[in-house]
Write a structure and sequence with these properties.
Length: about 525
């Protein structure tokens, strides 16, 4: 990551290298993540290293062949969680090495077809009439090629093992053709001795790395840059026990013809949570950073009507980061209800929910449209989350199934921090969002430990910059439900909440911290003449 911010026009960057810098050489290509808002995917950059200087203080300065085109942040914001533990949100551009000595590369720049078409400037002023001419991409990213996007692809199919490390994969994947991915580990099932490690995968036309019916393998320290469609992709929802860790995805772009969801792509597509997903970074996705979307039954060539990924609990989801994404840092959609005990053998288990024993932990998200949203489900615990500078909301729960189950395993956020604005750099926006959006209709929602920071000065309309939106995207005569709160801390946050109408909700203040009264079992409601 950057140690200090780098400005447009700079010919060098300084990165944090506490353990030194190994394997990076003059002439190598690097990718630099964007750190702008939800529309900043275009600010992703790749550059050639011209010099390497060890500064002797745990940082290294890299000279660049060409000047930076955009600002890239290297700042941080430190605070404490509701339980007093210190936490630092790093608003820093990630830097990934793309070059390797061993290269797997498709035919580059075929001259009969190749053409670079620029992105449109001021496209809101373009003439879009019937006979108007257009020589640029509207709302695209300036690097779309006129070639056939027919790259190399690598398929490991029904093998006994696969061991690939520190290889460069470039101009790979065949656009719009399912199965023709740059790196594809396919239907090989138990693979405890297999690994895909340290790959530099860039300028690809059909995702980056696909894990299809592979279990117990390791996918780590890979960099995916400038790819079309989902970057790191699990396919049939039977993939379990894999170590998907310490990977970096930058500039994840839409693909107009794969799965429909590739048109709103995600850097990490997770259809089975029984994996170790930890330490990954998603930056500058056109869609989502992490999309948790378990299907009701396993799919594709591994359909099993007795196996329900939607009920599988989290094995490990920890220390992941998403920023500068066009939609959400993380989206739990379409539905997710993890169950206890017999989930691997019995769909519809009545053994209860699994959230408390299988939480998602320490997710950091900033500068997206929304930080994290759970759209529908039950029994998901989200612990130690940190969210800041997102446009619409920091943490959200739209809806869940349970209507009266406020048990320990119910859907909840614990010991989390939401920040209207960190003010860590002049380029970061002021407060535009809600800190927390509570459910729209059904659900039993609990917040045990939440710290609201800098919800004080609205930057846009009067309905922005509030700690709590008391009902997800509500309107008058909508909602009317209960949520439970405790351990609430207000830090420079006078704008505590926003009601739309008189009977919108009841917030049950278990310890008096939400209302500030200190009186247990207080209730917070909109003002009404019908009650005190």
């Amino acid at each position: 990551m950057l140690d200090v911010s780098a400005n447009a026009g700079d010919n060098s960057i300084t990165i944090q290298t506490p353990s030194g810098l190994t394997g990076w050489n003059v002439g190598n290509r690097i990718a630099i993540a964007p750190t702008g808002d939800k529309n900043s995917i275009i600010e992703s950059e790749d550059h050639i290293i011209t010099s390497i200087t060890d500064n002797g203080d745990g940082t290294t300065t890299l000279g660049l062949q060409d000047p930076l085109a955009y600002l890239h942040l290297g700042v941080e914001f430190t605070t404490t969680r509701p339980d007093g533990r210190s936490v630092t949100l790093h608003q820093r551009a990630e830097v990934g090495l793309l070059s390797r000595n061993v290269k797997f590369e498709g035919s580059k720049n075929p001259s009969p077809w190749y053409d670079e078409i620029p992105a449109c400037e001021n496209f809101d002023q373009l003439d879009l009439g019937l006979h108007a001419q257009q020589n640029c991409f509207v709302d695209r990213f300036g690097d779309e090629e006129g070639s056939d996007k027919f790259g190399a692809h690598m398929l490991l199919h029904s093998v006994t093992h696969g061991k690939i490390e520190y290889m460069e994969v470039h101009h790979a994947g065949q656009a719009f053709d399912l199965g023709r991915y740059p790196v594809h580990f396919h239907n090989s099932y138990s693979q405890p001795n297999s690994y895909f490690r340290g790959l530099g995968i860039w300028q690809t036309f059909n995702r980056a790395m696909t894990m299809h019916a592979v279990n117990d393998a390791t996918f780590e320290y890979n960099v995916a840059y400038n790819n079309m469609g989902h970057a790191f992709f699990t396919e049939d929802a039977v993939e379990t026990g894999n170590y998907i860790q310490y990977n970096l995805a930058i500039k994840t772009k839409p693909s107009s013809s794969l799965l429909s969801v590739d048109q709103t792509p995600t850097s990490f597509w997770i259809v089975n949570t029984n994996n170790y997903v930890r330490g990954n970074h998603a930056a500058g996705s056109a869609g989502f950073g992490f999309w948790v979307n378990p299907p009701k039954r396993s799919t594709g060539s591994n359909v099993d009507n007795n196996y329900c990924p939607r009920e599988v609990p989290v094995l490990e989801f920890s220390d992941n980061v998403a920023h500068s994404c066009g939609v959400y840092g993380m989206w739990i959609f379409e539905d997710y209800t993890p169950r206890k005990n017999n989930w691997a053998a019995e769909c519809g288990s009545s053994a209860g929910q699994a959230g408390a024993d299988h939480p998602m932990v320490n997710f950091h998200t900033w500068n997206n449209h929304r930080g994290c949203e759970m759209s529908m489900g039950d029994g998901v615990h989200m612990n130690d989350f940190v969210s800041a500078n997102n446009f619409k909301a920091e943490l959200s729960l739209k809806e869940n199934h349970a209507t009266d189950n406020f048990a320990d395993d119910s859907t909840s956020y614990h010991n989390s921090v939401v920040i209207g604005t960190t003010k860590a750099h002049a380029s970061l926006p002021g407060c535009t969002s809600f800190g927390m959006e509570t459910p729209w209709k059904f659900g039993s929602f609990m917040v045990h430990g939440i710290k609201f920071i800098n919800f004080n000065e609205a930057e846009k309309a009067s309905d922005s910059c509030y700690g709590i939106d008391y009902c997800y995207s509500s309107y008058p005569f909508d909602c009317g439900r209960i949520s439970l709160w405790s351990g609430v801390d207000w830090d420079n946050s006078d704008r505590k909440g926003h009601f739309e109408w008189e009977f919108e909700t009841v917030l049950w203040d278990l310890d008096g911290s939400l209302s500030g009264t200190g009186v247990p079992n207080s209730k917070v409601t909109p003002n009404s003449n019908l009650y005190d």
